[in-house]
């Protein structure tokens, strides 16, 4: 509870300070820009529906529990499906019994389904990225001296100079370290001027902040990095003809199986890892990835598709992340298929909000976790009381639990139970871990537990 409060407060204080200093014109400019983005996103969404020959979609439920069309939060109504796709049964109906069959036959089948229908295909010939260290400075983070590098990954845009793309990244490693260190890289949110956080109740203001996640890493002698996904792919449909997706498409709209923002963000994380492989301060075999919410989804996608990431800390990823798509609880496929969120996914994903249904999906989220196997994945959620039910904590737990058979086939350990545990129970004995902390929409309070889990692999 305490830590989530600290986290929230830090956010709120930042937001309130920003608001106090913010002139009205900044807020107005922000709202005007948002209106244009919304209109352009709706237009792009519409052209994708035309490509898919879809005329109508089922609307998703509301995230507001008071609304007449509020999302279902009644567990007895949550499982309209009778079965999930089996990660260990081939398309031809044969059972997978060896690791070789997994790697050579079944895994490629699952990847193909995720590529075509869910997250989209990453283009074959992607431009090169050249990393530049913009600045390097020695500084203190709490009690810890660190070397912080600010980096830019310049994307070669000679094929289409009208679009310029730079990946923004920072890396901090302990200044006193004599050997390469493990690094956790976080997907960092960046809010435009004029953006406002919702206000939590004033009674939750704490007295002093706990060690930040960065300081917890430094205390172990590890480093941290932050990558800013919106520096190379915008978080809206209007941006799909720009950023790395737009650059490769030469400013043209996507085809239905082209990559969406989640895969684009994951591509950037892989390029950051390319850089880490060249930096002597980093042990590139021990780099993990962390993210919350939409970046929790991106974290799961990154881990599934990039075998060089050693561990993942998937925060409140919800629908489109590791929550079972077929579960009727909290956010639904229909929400993600709508014009505000479809850009995360392949255009083809929209089909499952009409005429198809989530039950028609060829894969489900447990198979995304299975694609990460045998590498360790920690699935994190907040409390329904504070975070709400939109993310569907149990749906995310099941995403990890049903991936278990694949971990076991590969000689690793599953979560150890199919029973959704009480809040604050750490399921960390297997290679897929789960913990629901008692705070809000943050990974904050789960960092200490995640680090105990990560210790087993990194130390
Ligand atoms: C919305 C969205 C979620 C997403 C979240 C976030 O709530 O519906 O899918 O995870 O925003 O990124 O904060």
CATH class: Alpha Beta
Going by helix content, strand content and strand pairing, the class is alpha/beta
- As residue ranges, the low-confidence spans are 1-14, 201-207
In DSSP terms (H or I, runs of 4 or more residues), the helix count works out at 12
Report the helical percentage: 25-40%
Question: What share of the residues does DSSP label as strand, in percent?
Answer: 15-25%
Order of H and E elements: HHHEEEEHEHHEHEHHEHHEH
- State the domain count: 1
Alpha-carbon distance between the termini? 29 Å
Tell the overall outline: globular
> Judging by the overall fold, what is the CATH architecture?
3-Layer(aba) Sandwich
GO molecular function, one term: carboxylic ester hydrolase activity
Protein name: Acetylxylan esterase
Pfam family, one: GCE_fung
Organism: Larkinella rosea
What would you say about this model in short?
With 459 residues, the chain is α/β, with parallel strands linked by helices.
